[in-house]
Amino acid sequence: MSSISEEYLGAVIRKIAAVNHILHWSYDQVKFENIAQNYFGVLIPIVLSGKRRGKDVKYSLVLKLAPTNEQYRVSGAVTVMFVREVYMYSVVLRKYGEIQEGLPKTSQYIIPRCYFVHEEYCKEAIALQDMCAAGYKPYTHEMFLDLSHTLLSLKSLAKLHAFSFILKNKNQELYEEIAQTCIPLTEHTNLRYMEIMRDRLDQALKTFDRTLYIPLLFKLRLNCAEFFYAAGHSVQNSCLCHGDIWKENILFKYEGNKVVSACIIDYQTARISSPAYDVMYLIISSTNTKLRNKYLHQLLDIYFRTFEMILKELGLESKEIYSRQMFDKDLKVVSPACVIAANTALWLSNGLQEVGHVRSKNVLNTKEEKAMALDTYKGIVKAIMDDLSRFGYLSLADDNP
């Protein structure tokens, strides 16, 4: 990932200060060698201090900056993702904030405040409220979420989907504009993404060679584009979804040792899809097989009850828009695409992607480390396929999933 110079960083902060009418400003940041990076940009936490309307102010911000070197922009993915996230914060989430005014606090969707966006090519920037400074933390102590964190994540996701349906039904003009920007994921709209998905399925086919999972993996590989198309077009209804909702894109707030709130972040892949895609993807990517087998029905119930409640509070009935029966049907339609995406994410997060523009953050140095990582990946993906087969969402046999 390209580095960000002090000069460039200062120029970005100068713009943020000007837009927010902050005078006599200064900023503190973590040391450059400690800057966190995500797969499609650089994250820089800063504290911006100064005067606004004669009063001392201090803002804890996270700057999300696109790589300025064009060599990292070859595929076009970074550009598309920043355009989408800028749009989400400057238009969509701002509108959601207006929609939820007057709702009880427990019904509100947590939205980081956005202080600045810039869309110029190779200079894209977003300045967001640092939710960690507001008491939110990533879930880092275990590989998978426990029950309480999963339930809160699904409740938050249900609010996101409900607000989308509210907008779709009460402001069709804006929703149509959103649908033109946050387009469904298909081979036509993102060929590079599909190529990556198929490549990681090739890796899975090698890993699971001579096992009972080969027929399913082969069908997923052969029909990859069709399965993603179905998740956006062959469903009972669709709305604006997150598109990449797993534990790495959720922050949590605690009171004592109890988790009390979830904040969903990173909207680069927001797109029109079935809500069931987000729900199923979150569950299979962020929980272990023990939790899924014991609580899957409870997780789906909590999600849908929250979705139903938010719609009702804002004057809509789920049975007229997106009923539980529709949701249950869509879960079966989207499951193949969810498995394909989870396979890619797990290959990456386990340190197995060593080449390409998007590489694993985890660097594996020895053969032993790589073998252990491969075994971990294989065990997780196997459990996902087993569980979805057991619950009737996929088939391991030689018929269609």
TrEMBL record:
Domain CHK kinase-like positions: 126-313
The organism's place on the tree of life at top rank: Eukaryota
Gene3D superfamilies per the UniProt record, alphabetical: 3.90.1200.10
Entry-linked SMART domains: CHK (SM00587)
Entry-linked SUPFAM superfamilies: Protein kinase-like (PK-like)
Alphabetical list of InterPro entries matching this protein: CHK_kinase-like, EcKL, Kinase-like_dom_sf
Protein name, per record: CHK kinase-like domain-containing protein
Lineage, opening ranks: Eukaryota, Metazoa, Ecdysozoa, Arthropoda, Hexapoda
